[in-house]
UniProtKB/TrEMBL annotation:
Pyruvate phosphate dikinase AMP/ATP-binding domain segment(s): 43-323
Protein name according to UniProt: Phosphoenolpyruvate-utilizing enzyme
TM region positions: none
InterPro entries: ATP_grasp_subdomain_1 (IPR013815), PEP-util_enz_mobile_dom (IPR008279), PEP_Utilizing_Enz (IPR051549), Phosphohistidine_dom_sf (IPR036637), PPDK_AMP/ATP-bd (IPR002192)
Keyword Glycoprotein in record: no
Region feature (Disordered): 1-22, 909-945
The organism's place on the tree of life at top rank: Bacteria
Residue ranges occupied by any PEP-utilising enzyme mobile domain in the UniProt entry: 830-901
GO molecular function: ATP binding; kinase activity
Keyword Nucleotide-binding: no
PANTHER family per UniProt: PHOSPHOENOLPYRUVATE SYNTHASE-RELATED, PPDK_N DOMAIN-CONTAINING PROTEIN
Species of provenance: Streptomyces coelicoflavus
Pfam family, one: PPDK_N
Amino acid sequence: MDTHVSDSTTATETGTPFTDPAGHAACVVTLGTGAPAGGHRGELGGKGTRLAELSAAGLPVPPAFCLTTALFDAYLRETGIAAEAPGADPRTMRERILGTRMPAPIADAVLDAYGGMGRPRVAVRSSGLREDSAAQSFAGQHDTVLDVCGDEDVLDAVLRCWASLWSDRATVYRDADAPDSLAVVVQEMIHTDVSGVMFTVDPVNPRPHRLVVEACQGLGEGLVSGQVSSDFFVVDDEKLEVVEERVRYKVTKCAPLEPGRIGMTKVDAASRSVPCLTHDQLRELGALAVRIRDLYGSEQDIEWGVRDGVFHLFQTRPITTRPVAPAAPSGALSPYVAPQPEPVLNGTLWSRMDIGEIFVGLMSPLGLSFARYYQRNVHTDCAGALGVRDTGEADLHMGFYQGHVYLNISYSSYLLAQCLPTRDQRHFTSRFVSEEVDLASYENPFGTFPGGMEDLRSAVHWLQHTAREMTQMKSRSQQMVDARLYEFDRARGLDLTRMSRRELHGELHRDLAWFHDMHVGYMPYYINAFAFYGLLTELCARWLGSDGTGLQNRVKTDMSSLRTVESAKEVWAVAQAAKNDPAVLRIIKDEPLEDIARLLREDPAGQRFWDRHMEPFLRANGTRGHQEMEITHPRWIDDPSYIFQMIRRYVADGFSIDDILRRSSAWSDDSREVLDRLPMPKRQILDTVISLYALCSELRETTRMSMITSIWLVRNVVYEVGRRLVADGVLHSLDEVAHLDFEDVRRYLAGDEDAVRVFDRARVDAARRLHEHNKRLPEPPLTFVGVHDITASVRPAADGARLEGLAASPGRIVGRARIVEDLVWQADEFEAGEILVTRYTDASWTPLFAIAGGVVTDIGSMLSHSSIVAREFHVPSVVNTKDATQRIHTGDLIVVDGDAGTVEVVENADAEAGQSADAEAGGSADTDPRSTPVADRAPAGAGGD
């Protein structure tokens, strides 16, 4: 097509509103029936104009009509609202429109056009005058109503869109400008199989000739809101060849749940690990993108969907930000937050192994900024709680790399050399090093801690501190437990929504002080457990030789008393209570997850169940959650969906408390016999070390609940601020809280500065883009020395059948694999005896361990959560495989060898499906044992399954 539509002619050039003397029908424009919108640009709004232009160019746009700004103006005049508009409060204007029926002549014009489409299900979308222009996107400022059907519902949706011209977010976005008029697009609703966005230039990478595609299962609203996982593709815009592809495991999608109700549901199991689009479809989509870019002569952001193999275009807008290389705090290759001398920069040992189990994984901008607050205000005092006299510079303790938090092992070991047990730095460095790093040639760039009198003072200080710690550790633990219950009950009784900004600031200040104290109090238990475990490992190797191999992992340490394991038993108890009450069980089993808590409270039996069982459980465990320092993640008390999923699972499997107790009983091995062969002095020393390890482990887990509760308290205040920012239009949705900076939240509450200035839209968007950039990158290593170029990392080939990792929990088992990406959505899918395969776990995953046949993770170490709890439940486990979630598929038959540290795929899911089909055709099929000890099965390849 030769017609060129310039982005410089935007919908802001409205001129005098167009009104046809023939009546209101002329103010309704059917898109795609004539020439490009041209003369009516100011009447169709940005979205309507773009869709009209795409339709006129012969591009695949679903049938639609547009209610022009002239129709909206007529509505305002005929209802008398226009006279009230000048100087009116925006909320008053919204309420006035929503409370006024549409005059009959205007309603008839709308319904005539709707009838002309055949009255299908439609999406009703606002189309602002400045929306999708080259200067401003106005994206998300006005309302969209999806999956509407029926005359009355369509009219109500139109009124909602018109009222959104005075929404808080639109008012804030246009700042002091007066509201323009508003058009509305009514477009046939396409229930897409796959949806996504396509950028004709990479928005976060300046490399040329890259068409970037993000695709998800279901409707595109799930992708826009960040609620679903998406595949990522790059298409060369000249050859239309796919040059980059990253396929994620996709658990959920946005889709119609029932007529008129859009929500989250599960992706079919067969579609979870396969690409959303084929290469042929990507070439077709790339060709459409090039046509659209040529049409406008500028780079475009395009929304699209596929239904039954046919592409549909829903929107295009100019890209209003230029791609630049995302900024990192101190360069893209180093975790340091400030410039460092070259020897330090290139020689520092960094690790993210087991750093509190709460920093694991990619973190949001808010999570990273909260971790930075912890670094500056808490971490050095934690070091002091270990008996370190000189706690050093806060900025050197931790670093940040591509959205991940790293501990500076070099600096930490330098400072910990002040303590007698870690005088030899190797005791600390070896504890936090994965196999990626060879310590043979490593030299600490910070050197050794000063000797002489400084050394003596530090040693004396450590001895005095440690003596006090040993006498106070149990009493302090009890004080932390009591304080946790008090703070939890107090928080449950507060109504943050009724607090003023100044009161909310006081609450955050109080919560952060308690956050500090709980982390400082927890740290000695955490580090001492590691220290005694390290000493146990060293003594076993020295005194027992080959007989002591793995002894430290097999020794019973009374872990069954730890809160992480107790939670599995307590979930079972709640499940048993639900099972014994048919009315309660029906609600939990049959109702949507998001409705269960409300429906239980509305039902008499459900309310009794809630008071007697759920409330005590949540009081004990409710502040648990996934990746706890990431404060964007809800806790169980905020969203108990995971608990309801586990209740469903435990009830369905008939899992008994005896099963849990049996799995957490003593190892059936010769550990005691090996110890008894030692001379008494050595045996007594080992028994003492084992007892101290058990004590510190128990105190660590007991006080850990206080530590994570303190994070939950801070989260409550941050999200109350977020809700206010959404209500005031500063944020588009509560999801955007993830892109805020924690220091901005503190600054906003501490002063009187306007929220629009504190939470600058440009910085929020920049944080989002950087986070999206980090999500695309390969997983960084657990440990590395100096700098690391993550862009040089490549994913291993996906055709391997054998993986090697770290032998974390002994035993050997064969079973069907289950990839778990989203704990809440997939907990009810997990069947007893299956092999859990995931990237990593934390305390919130413990109830699954009670029914798992084995555990395999991408990352982890001997003292990561997955290793400790797997050993406690006697579940064979291999961790730190790097890429198990990419090379194993749900349904694969795999052998997990927790002694050798290997995972072998002996039969893939596709082959099993073929065998089952053959067996069914032949009239017989073997029963498929979900998980069987290898010793009880035929060898692989010898008949087997």
